[in-house]
Write a structure and sequence with these properties.
6 helices, 176 residues, mainly alpha
Length: 176
């Protein structure tokens, strides 16, 4: 039987092969099958996923990273790593300020140690070269960031000259 786009095609399945009394009975059986599979997957992956030496990211983020690397090469990885470490550093600096405000000296010192380590990691990554894609990636990011900032300015009703001609660099950080 050939399928025709836009046409209803019925496939010959004998009705006696289905043993469902109702839609809810069908859904219960499907959920039961998924639960068994989910449990088997969890048990199979547990040794790997509970290993402290395993680092992971969500499949959605991994797909985005792969797409950027495919398009721009390893420069995308370098930039993603540096931005991620920068955000992690900012987070630590915020926590450090909370520790200082609460007179938590031991916690402040541990957080400072982490900040120092993150700074070293950032400096090391900045020195690593790329095999290619540096200018292409930077050009693409400039275009995307310029467009995103323009849209944000339009949303907020702010004027570009007001934002970028001032001495206050912080005035446009909220746009990024």
């Amino acid at each position: 039987m050939a399928a025709y786009p836009g046409k209803l095609c019925l496939l010959p399945f004998p009705m006696d092969s289905f043993s469902f009394d109702s839609v809810s009975h069908f859904l219960q059986q499907v959920e039961g099958a998924k639960s068994r599979k989910r449990q088997a997957v969890e048990e199979g992956l547990e040794p790997f996923l509970t290993d402290p030496a395993t680092f992971a990211m969500s499949p959605e983020i991994a797909t985005l990273v792969d797409k950027e690397v495919e398009q721009y090469g390893d420069e995308a990885l370098k930039q993603i790593c540096i931005v991620a470490l920068g955000k992690w550093l900012d987070y630590h600096q915020g926590i450090l300020q909370e520790h200082i405000d609460n007179d938590a000296m031991a916690e402040s010192l541990m957080t400072l140690r982490d900040i120092s380590t993150l700074n070293i990691a950032l400096r090391l990554l900045e020195e690593v070269g790329s095999f290619g894609g540096d200018e292409d990636y930077r050009s693409a990011m400039r275009k995307q960031i310029n467009q995103a900032v323009l849209e944000k300015l339009e949303e907020t009703g702010r004027d570009p000259e007001e934002v970028f001609n001032g001495d206050d660099e912080e005035s446009y950080h909220d746009l990024l």
